[in-house]
Amino acid sequence: MCSMFTNVRFWKQTRSFRARIKAISILNSMNAQRLLLAAAVLAAMSVLSHSASISGTILYEGVQAGPVHVLAAQTLPGNKALQLDGNAFVTVSSLTNLSGAELTIQYWFKGNSVQSAVRQQNAGYLVAGWNKLHILSNDGGTAGISAGNAITDGNWHQVVMSWKQGTKGGFASYLDGKLVDQRDSSDTPIPDIQAPVYFGSFNGAGEFAEGLLDEIAIWRKSLTAEEIKSGWNKRLTGQEAGLLGYWSFDDGTPNDLSTNAYNGELGGNAVIVDAGVPGLGAGLGEVELPQPGAFTITGLPSGPGYSLLAFRDSNTNSVADAGEPARPGRDGNDANIARR
Ligand SMILES: [Ca+2]
Ligand SMILES: [Ca+2]
Q1: Which ligand has an atom closest to residue 180 CA?
Q2: Residues with C-beta atoms within 5 A of ion ligand 1
């Protein structure tokens, strides 16, 4: 039985330099008696000329313990992403050699099957996002490291696999800027696999991903934890040092926006669609409360399009996991939130 917050409604009015969000809880009469997590958010967003804050209160009536995380994310218009229906992929025919002592692969994903998110395979292989793992044929094979349990919860997540040869903690995985798995890396470099890179498929033939992929970047270097923590929700320009390729799909194509021009080609039922990604290139803030109660998230860029997420971090790993009470729920359906 999933714990859940009660229904929350948001109203928003914007008046030049002043905006206001109010939210109130509405107890669902059917669930009121066994409600485990109740959110009563009375939030006021005061917008100054450059920054804003959102505050409110989280209430909880359940049995699970642990800190409460509250996240505010802004969704900006105009973003496009790659849509994969289970029989779709992108082929990057010109990018066949990722070999070397360092590699980072990152992307945003929303969906429930992350098979072959970014994959290259021939005699050797590397897959960033395979059965919720990152796997490298030169380092542990299919044992891999975790890509994060929440990766397939139906919400947007930023995913990073970072690898550096023969290094303590050199094989690392991040979800939404936070380290989720790490171990010492092998002393065998990434091989020259001599096969195209695919997004969403094993060589265009199987093990398809299902969901939305966006903001894919491949680096010929190992991004550090600090770089990932500070930059995970920023947009790239394509000009960054060490960048091998960058596919944002925002121009409606699978073209590489880096100087290398490793342009992709849509395959199967792949299409590029409009997709709002909370936090991508936009305002984002988080607070951790030792227990339910009042919160304030400060330092947010002013503007419209903010939504709130709260979860009780029962296992204290700072990420939302299955079974942890959350509001809104994790099926991607936020129909309980009405905005106007
Ligand atoms: Ca995009
Ligand atoms: Ca957790």
Answers
A1: 2
A2: 79, 214, 248-250
pTM above 0.85, yes or no: no
Instruction: Estimate to the nearest angstrom the gap between the alpha carbon of 134 and the chain centroid.
Output: 15
What separation in Å is there between the alpha carbon of 235 and the centre of ligand 1? 9
Task: For 286-315, write each residue's pLDDT tens digit.
Answer: 999 999 888 889 889 888 888 888 888 999
Cα(214) to centroid(ligand 1), Å: 5
Domains and CATH numbers, the chain: 7-75+282-327 (2.60.40), 80-274 (2.60.120.200)
Candidates 165, 164, 192; CA nearest to 97 is 192
